[in-house]
Structures are given as C-alpha cells and as structure tokens.
Amino acid sequence: MVQQYRGRARALAGAAFALVGVVGAGGCTGGAGASADDRNGGPEAVREAAHVLAGAGSSRARTAMTMATGGTRVTIRGTGGFDFRRRSGRLRVVLPPDAAGAEEHPPITELLTPAAVYMKNRGANVPAGQWVRIEPEKLSDGNLVTNGATDPLVAAELLRGARGVAYAGTEELAGVRVRHYKGTADLAVAARNAATPEARAVLAAAAKGFAGPGVPFDAYFDAQGRLRKVREIFSFANKGQTVQVASTTLLYDFGAPVAVTLPPLGDIYAGTVE
To answer: Count of CB atoms within 10 A of residue 90's CB?
Structure first.
C-alpha cells in the first residue's frame, strides 16, 4: 500500500518523501517541574510499554501516516481497537484520493493477529468480498509501514529497544495529563527483547529492511504507565536517497471490547495482489 503511494509521488515530483506525524498534542508544560521519578524512571517505563498494555487488556486506537513530497501530502488514517492480551485487533484504514485527486478508494479493513494480517478491499485485482492474508515477518519492513498502519502492540514492542531516552515534560493529550519521552529505538535490540516469537520475527525483519536500526520516537504515558501515544519515524533507502515514514498511534478508551473474527478460508484470495 505504502509502496503504491511512493510510486505515485515519484512519478509526480521525482523526489524523496518527507513524512510528518499527524496526531498532535497541545499544552506542553516542559520539564522544569518534573519529579526525579519522571526523569530517572523514564527509560524503564518506556521499555515496559508493551508489558503494561498487556495488563491493560484492550483499547480503542487511531493510527496515521502522512507522506509529503513536492506540494503533495498523502495521509493514511486508521481507526479501530486492539486486544493487547490476545495480540489481535481490527482497524478501518482510509486511503486518500490518488495523486491527481480523482480516484476514491474504499476503506480497507485490517484484522491484526499474531500470525498474519488479513485485509479486505486491498488491491485493485482482488475480487469483491475477498480477503488478502499477509505474514508480516515475510515483508521487508515487518509490516510496520507497508499497509498504512503500524500494529499498535508492535509499535509498543519496538520501544523495548529504546536508547537515549530523555524526559520532555508533561502535556495534555485528549484531556489526559501525560509524560512525554523522546529517544531512539534500536530495531535489533527490540527484536531480541520482544515478548513473543511473532514480535521478534517482525522486528528482526524490519531491522534488515530499513536503512538503519535506529527509529526516533516520541512516547506519551498516562499516570498508570499506559502508552497513550507513540510517534515513530522509519527510514529506508530509495534510489540512493533516504526516505522517512512517520507513523503515529493514539490509544484511548482502555478496556473497550474488541471483536476480531477471522474470515473463512474460502474468502481468502490466493492470487497476486497489485
């Protein structure tokens, strides 16, 4: 999916992507009044993000990826929910019109599971009502950006490789006071420290596919230590240039039920996806 938009942007502008995070937070208070616990406990709190989310059970989620080249900006948005204990979720991903602004794309339904991602309305040649099944560890980026939304739990697992964590103060995010941390996550370290074999395989694939192992991030945590928002910037090489993809995930309404029903085997498309 992201590759399709990369191609369209190259055709229009012939330039590399510059990507910007989309989901914003306001009211930064800075770190002047931060407690010692905030400053000194941050790195471990960041690295434990996935573990704390598993304890929280589930939440609603919003995702966003924004790509800009020349004067054109492409934003892919997703809404849905994720069950962190079962490591499964459901997102409705909305694509923008094509580069010329003429073509509307139907929303894509993505079912996220430990073993695979299932997508409906994915690919122009896929018959109506059929699903596409993808194994994330077989993709060069571990599916962190390929299909327009980063798995919320994998985004948190990536923080297990957090390095150089710095406390950046408190902010107001959707009416909740959150602590803001900045740093860089090492994909290879995150892969070694991930909680499950599936997450380790996905992050290991990404460590090989991106331009470098370092992923700059901004992470925001509430008073319960739950990850509320994370923005991660992924870099990859494209024709001698480094392209950056910013992915933002917002988590809220913890405890909300999330139902994920896998499609019947007969509804899964076996052909090639364009």
So the answer is: 20
**Total structural domains within the chain:** 1
Residue linked to tokens 């870099």: 235
Blockwise average pLDDT, block size 10, the chain, 274 residues: 46 29 33 45 89 97 80 82 96 77 76 93 83 90 87 95 96 95 96 90 89 92 96 82 86 96 92 72
| CATH number of the domain enclosing 233 | 2.50.20.20
Query: Can you state the angle between helices 36-47 and 49-56, rounded to 10 degrees?
Result: 80
Q: Is residue 39 part of a domain?
A: yes
State which residues form the domain around 149: 2-250
Question: What distance in Å separates the CA atoms of residue 245 and residue 22, rounded to the nearest whole number?
Answer: 11
Tell me if 28 is assigned to some domain.
yes
pTM of the model: 0.82
